[in-house]
Design a protein that fits this description.
Layout (H helix, E strand, L loop, with lengths): L1 E7 L2 E7 L6 E3 L1 H14 L7 E4 L2 E4 L3 H10 L7 E7 L2 E6 L1
Antiparallel strand pairs: 1-2, 2-3, 4-5, 6-7
């Protein structure tokens, strides 16, 4: 078995792969994070938009923030906001 890394949906998955049959075994922790992401990705959240001063604020659900926080520390960091089309805004945690 050889140690390998595989990219899937933006995640780097650690694992081992058989050089003969190409069977891949992914590290359980990495697989769990990918499954947790899949559950959040397919879930719709309904949040309120509120007026705060001269701007509007949208709350980000706690489970999304906790998932991102597990990946990297984001509190007090700047995020990038992009107006993609008339009904879509993208928020990037970088």
């Amino acid at each position: 078995m050889l140690k390998v890394t595989v990219m899937k949906e933006g995640f780097t998955l650690r694992g081992v792969q058989c050089p003969d049959c190409k069977n891949l075994i992914v590290h359980p922790q990495d697989e769990q994070e990918l499954n947790q992401f899949a559950l959040l990705k397919n879930k719709n959240f309904h949040v309120k938009m509120r007026l705060v001063g001269n701007s509007y604020a949208v709350s980000i659900p706690k489970e999304i923030v906790e998932f991102i926080r597990e990946q990297e520390m984001i509190m007090n960091d700047m995020v990038r906001l992009c107006f993609e089309d008339a009904k879509k805004i993208n928020l990037f945690f970088e």
